[in-house]
Amino acid sequence: MSLRLIRQGLRFHNGLYFSIFNAVNKFPVSTHVHITGVSSYSSQFNLKNNFTRHFASSYNKNKKNETTLDNKSKKEAIYDSLKTELLSKNRVTFTGVQEYLRLCLENQELNRDDTILLLNCLSYGLPNVAKVKKQEMTSKIWLKMSKNLMQDEQVILNYLKSCCLNGTKLDHDKFLIEIGIKPSENILEALLETIAETGNISETQKLIEEMKVRGVPLNESTYATMIRCYGIANDLNGVRSVTELMNSAKIEVTSKCNSQLIQAFLRNNEEEIAIKMIKEHGKWFKEQQLLQILTTVMLFCPKKEIIELTLKNFSSDLIQDKEIYGPFRNICSELILHKKYDEVGTLISCLPVPAYTNVDDLDLYGDFAMQDMILNDAPLEAVMKFVKQLQMEKRNEMALRTVTGQALRYFSPIVNDLLEALSKEEPLKPHYFWPLFIHNSTIDGEIGVFKTLELMKKFSVEVDHDTLTFYVMPQLAITLKNVEKGVKELEAVGIKSKNLLTPLSVHLMFQQRFNETLHINALYPTKLDTRLLINPLVTAFNYAKSNDKIPLIAHLVKVFSDKKVDSKYDIAGHLFSILISNTKSKVENQKIMQLIGELSLHGVKISKIAGEMLQQHLADDMNDEQRKKYFSDFIDRKVSLPADELIESHIKHPRDMNLEELECHFAELESKRLNTRGVLRRLLQLNVREKRLERALEIKKHCDKEGVDLSPGMHAAIFDIYIKIGRPSEAATVLKRLMQKFPAFVIDEHKIIDYAALLAKNGDFDEAQRVLRMRASLTPIKGSDTVGKNIWNLLNNIATTAPTLKQLDQSENHTKTFFQFLVQNNYCTYQNSVLGPVIKEFLNKNDLKSAVNEYVTLAKSHRLTPLQRQLMTILVDVANRAELQSQYSISKSEAQDMLQELIKATSAIHGHTNTNIAFIVSLAQAGTEKQLRKVLIDPNARFSPDVLKKQCEYLNSVGRLDALLKLAKCSRGLGHIHEQQIYNMILDTLIQNNDYDGALNLFDQLLSDDEFKISNEFTRNLANLLRRNNIELPTNVALHIKQ
């Protein structure tokens, strides 16, 4: 439980950081709503460090230091973000859509992809935005379209969908004139639905008549649209007339019409009829139809009985999920827009209460509704009522903290009331107020900072070091011009001098106001947390451009040393340990020696270990006399360096450790019962990278046990583990969780391709395509050569699996189809390396004719020759063996003809010389000695001996010793390649493999050939191999050596 609470606290903390980021950079707040997926502590820590560096210089310099993307890059980034969020959550931010439209219109004209994305966002991606705003933007997009886009059917359908869902009123005659093309049946049906959605009966009937004239028949969809129109217009007589018309035309009333009838009755207070119909037909409705009914129930008849009756027809997996199902969230957002806050609570109360486990987050349930309430300025009473409901029903016992975080993030006018309510349940933390410091200072300047401090005082929240350092001091430039007066003003708002003096000293030192630092510390005898002053001292020393600053720094160290809280803490030694770890030049060493001298004058001493480190570092710059002068009275055995600083100086950081060191470090931490989460993260990633998959799974179990908050990279690593060990279902679960939790994280294409390969291996080609298509839709696919091996593996799995699947059409080459899909999505291009599996599928089906035809086609159309040698070898083999002719259902003459066709196509690409080499190798592998000898002695068969030698090396590397022996024997006396060289090559491989039996067999085989004389080098190498294995030399080998 404690780990979970820590994680939830960090998430609340993290949300505040992003609200601060929004305020500082003056971005529209809602553009950062979805950044909160980042929840690792390291991210927060780094962000805080960024603020430290930012404020150390000056808050007012923020605009100058801010870096911005050029418009093109910014547009691409927003496009990727919108598309990702739309796919993963069906939700985007309105400001994001506005900004993207603005960037698009800077180019004067919208392109097709931009238009479709924007219209999709406006259709279903903005459930928490008023329809009027979406209507205005939709109209703006339509007016900015080019004529070509207005005539694109897909664009038209997307536009009509946006108009329909947002209730836009259209003049159908004017619209049809505007598009300037003959409308298809799909366009007319979409236009009819759009007009019907406004409840305009006469316009709907007019369009139906026009559709009849155009030859578009009335179907179930048309009648369902008519029912919807009458229902929206509150005309039940009209609804009944449509059903009578359907009965007279003997058209069956299906689920589509029934769902619209139920909605019409609900809109017109005919609850009993609606309930009866839901009971009779509910189980037949599709999910989209049930969602429409549920939306209508919530807007017009939000009674618990009807809600529960409707929910029963949804899949139990959707209802019983620990998170509220996405479409239900959208319904809640629409209710909030209509200010129906009680109805939101009613719908959520009808859902089962989640059964949480120890690793589940308790503060996420209903967070979207609280966010929408805050963004839409819901009254405090409605917000508190909803929060109390979540807490009482034990759906989200931390709801008040969550909604307070939302109010702080978006600077809601009710934030003070929520803070007051939260203060009655739990002590408020200083960082809750950080967003308010930024927001209030932006509006009211330094007075705004003091207002926030007054608020903290009201709630009895003690202002801590971080708050003062990062969010108070940097924004009080005017107040702190007179430091002494500024301190009194801060004390007046409840800040105690014991909390104030350390961060004030940090602030003044970062501004290089050293004399004022000394002055204020002389006025106040308060003790200092000197560990927090080390970084400012290091910065001051590093930026001391002249030696006259060194005495001042030494004076500061003396003052801080006298006022330190921990009397045993060696502040001077700590300072030197950092300085020497960063110092390389002798010039800086001279400054260090000067600082030692100045500190000695002030009577400051350092610990023994710090002195030893310092003497060792300065050994080359000091003689014995200087060493005695500087260090004789500079050591104090009563002070010491902090243990963590000693460890930091001598032990590697886990990020710099190798796998073995990390394992040892993990074992040590575990044995001491210390925090192992950081090491576990690193271990998981490295074990996956090193392909130590079993150990990676063990580490994952440790992560689950320790409740490690998995980052996107760790999720991706786990995803990779399951792929590599061949568990597609577990990989799918991790991928789904990754996309839900981190929608902005884009997994690299290598892993996705490998996952698709695993799916293909299991025969799930459709799912493999879906996953690849999804990845291609997120960001542009690079399709570089680095994924070539992954693509080949994917296609090879298809080529191997497809012939075994009876449900597939075996007349189709499924590998070829999949390859074309990959090319269309930019995963690869036409290359020999990835086209091999296309040929292989034909071979796996024993369809040699199609394989050769495909090869010839690729050679002619793309100048590519995949599986050249393999095909050539098979054809040679088939021509020589009757059993293979039967297997491939071709005759010897057909095989020979195909071989000639293959050679001709190959020669056109690679030339006759290289083709001859390939043919020779094929004959060596599958032909007879007579055939091979005939080609080798043919004067017209030109080839390069050097290339042939390389091919021999290839055959040797793949273990085709039979082919090499045949080639060696057939080349005897021809001079193309020396026979003995081939035997030496074979023997070298046998020696490398320590295969002395194979080497002896080769020797015996050569010895039995009376026409061949074995070289002395060959025999000596064989003898050395046998002696190395302590084997007595056989008689024939010994005799041959003597000879």
Report, as a whole number of angstroms, the end-to-end distance.
Answer: 85 Å
Number of helices: 59
Tell me the domain tally: 6
What does the main sheet amount to? none
CATH topology of the largest domain: Serine Threonine Protein Phosphatase 5, Tetratricopeptide repeat
SS class: mainly alpha
Overall CATH architecture of the largest domain: Alpha Horseshoe
Strand content: under 5%
Mean pLDDT: 82
CATH class of the largest domain: Mainly Alpha
**Integer-rounded radius of gyration:** 39 Å
Please tally the β strands and state the result.
0
Low-confidence stretches: 1-7, 21-69, 644-650
Share of helix, binned? 55-70%
The best one-word shape is flat
Protein name: CSON007878 protein
InterPro entries: LRP130 (IPR033490), PPR_rpt (IPR002885), TPR-like_helical_dom_sf (IPR011990)
Pfam family, one: PPR
GO molecular function: mRNA 3'-UTR binding
